[in-house]
Amino acid sequence: MNKTDVCIIGAGLSGACIARTLASHNISVLVIDARNRVGGRLLTAAAANGDLGGAWVWPRSEPNMANLLRKLNMQTAPMHIDGVSMAYTSNGKRHVIPDGQGAMYAACGNGAMRVCGGASRVAAALLEGHVVRLGMRVTEIDYHDNNEVKVKCIDMISNNNDNDSDNTTIITCQAVILAAPPKVLINKIQFVPNLPKQKAESMVATPTWMQEYGKVAVSFPTNWWRQQHMSGISIDHVGAVATWWEACSGSEGDGDLPTLAGFVIEKGAAILSDFTGDESSSLFEYIIESLKRVYDVDENTMGIKEDAVNQIIARGGSEQDGLEISNGAVTVFYKSWLHDDFTNAKDDPNQSGKLDFTCNYGDIDLQSSVEPLFFAGTETAAGAHGHMEGAVIAAERAATEVLDYLSKSLFVFDHSSC
Questions:
Q1: How far apart are CA 263 and CA 173, in angstroms?
Q2: Are 265 and 212 a contacting pair, CB within 8 Å?
Q3: For residue 417, is pLDDT > 70?
Q4: Which helix (H) or strand (E) holds 173?
Q5: Up-side HSE of residue 48: CA atoms within 13 Å toward CB?
Q6: Is it true that the peptide bond before 349 is cis, omega within 30 degrees of 0?
Q7: The pTM is what?
């Protein structure tokens, strides 16, 4: 289908919500994404259900996500904070934080819930039954004719040669919704005509949520931290992973395997980049040694057997959909959003070099449409920016704008030839 009422660029949570809303109003929708999966910055380690991207919701203060999860009949689990927590400080000392204080040291704070089975399930469920084309990298949007917008894409999945023109697709539509990070969009897509100067500069000046970070998840055969009355929460001032928490318990529907997850800040991402590629076994060893040091446990407790030392198997890539390294019953997953071109877009020196400001999330210039182009994504949200809640808020605004725009349009596509 290369002709549709609305083309949505971005199969993350915001784009998925918009697709569902528009389809309920009998609007034909085509969702495209440069990645080869749906979810955007919602990425779940499939073997364990631990999240490597957006992970938490706060139902008491985020009603849109709470309502969405109820509609989808998706269960949540509270952040595990019971038991002692750990802190390893820069002076090389381990500190045991008493039971009852875990929420004070958790990266998510108090009141957080996680989606059982992983947050990426939400986007996948919303897109069921919709037309979604993956591996489609948008290079140009020609909107000079408001009645017929042309979106030029390169099919990256079918592109097995150096001639991009052999796999170029033109999608024709009445409106386009750009549901991806503003900075990525402005740096990767040529707009014809150019976007208004103030809007383009605001997009360039908007940091992308997670652009300097990464996440690690480690799955185990048993939930050894709960067995030792630990919360799983820790802070590490020495290693590449700055803070850890329980990503899923591995019981009662909360994930397939007990899993710890942690944030990798920019400095940590630089450290771990030395261990990818041919050094995957070293990355596994580095993460395990970090856990041993922070939690004061041995490999046997974690489920690593001596006879599995030379059985390391690596799949994927940290800059793509995650690097997976298994050693017997223990698996390390690493996703570097810092090195993901669809999250941390390289600056265009012709634009960024002239700017001396940073645009705040939710800025009116990020939200404003350039009809027939509309903008969504968590960075554009009026509130809860950077959260899944923000993605839903932005989606509701953009969907309303598009429905209003289409209701005023006298032009209706004939889809009989599609």
A1: 40
A2: yes
A3: no
A4: strand 168-178
A5: 31
A6: no
A7: 0.92
**DSSP per-residue codes, 338-380:** TT-TTTSPPP-HHHHTT----PPTT-HHHH--BTTEEE-SGGG
Residue-wise pLDDT tens digits, 148-207:
999 999 998 876 555 555 789 999 999 999 999 999 999 999 999 999 999 999 999 999
For residues 13 and 122, is the Cβ–Cβ distance under 8 A? yes
Whether 229 has a pLDDT exceeding 90, the answer reads: yes
Q: Do the Cβ atoms of 79 and 249 come closer than 8 Å?
A: no
pLDDT one-digit tens code per residue, 174-191: 999 999 999 999 999 999
Average pLDDT value for the chain: 91
Q: Residue 322 contacts by C-beta under 8 Å, 6 or more apart in sequence?
A: 43, 45, 52, 316, 333, 334, 335
Residues paired with residue 3 on neighbouring β-strands, in sequence order: 172
Cβ neighbours around 88 below 10 Å, total? 20
Residue 298: how many other CB atoms lie within 10 Å: 9
Residue 278 CB coordination number (10 Å): 8
| Residue percentage of the chain with pLDDT more than 70 | 92
Nearest CA among 304, 235, 2 for reference residue 133: 2
- DSSP-assigned beta bridge partners for residue 164: none
pLDDT in tens, 51-95: 999 999 999 999 999 999 999 999 999 999 999 999 999 999 999
Would you say how long the chain is, in residues?
418
Would you say 7 and 177 are in contact if contact means Cβ atoms under 8 Å apart? yes
Name the token pair of 65. 């996500």
- Strands of 237-329, DSSP E: 241-248, 259-264, 312-317, 322-327
Specify the higher pLDDT residue, 305 or 283.
283
Buried b or exposed e, range 53-67, using 16+ CB within 10 angstroms = bbbbbbbeebebbbe
Cα–Cα distance, 176 to 29 (Å, whole number): 10
The span from the CA of 151 to the CA of 139, in Å, is: 8
Write down the pLDDT at residue 418. 40
**Which residues, in sequence order, are bridge partners of residue 104?**
none
Q: What is the SS3 assignment for 191?
A: strand
Question: CA-CA distance, 18 to 25, in Å (whole number)?
Answer: 11
Q: What 3-state DSSP class applies to 254?
A: strand
With a cut of 90, say whether residue 279 has pLDDT above it.
no
Q: Which of 319, 340, 327 is nearest to 281 (CA)?
A: 327
Q: How many helices (H) and strands (E) does the chain have?
A: 13, 22
What's residue 165's pLDDT? 59
The two three-digit tokens of residue 279, written as one number:
């050094």
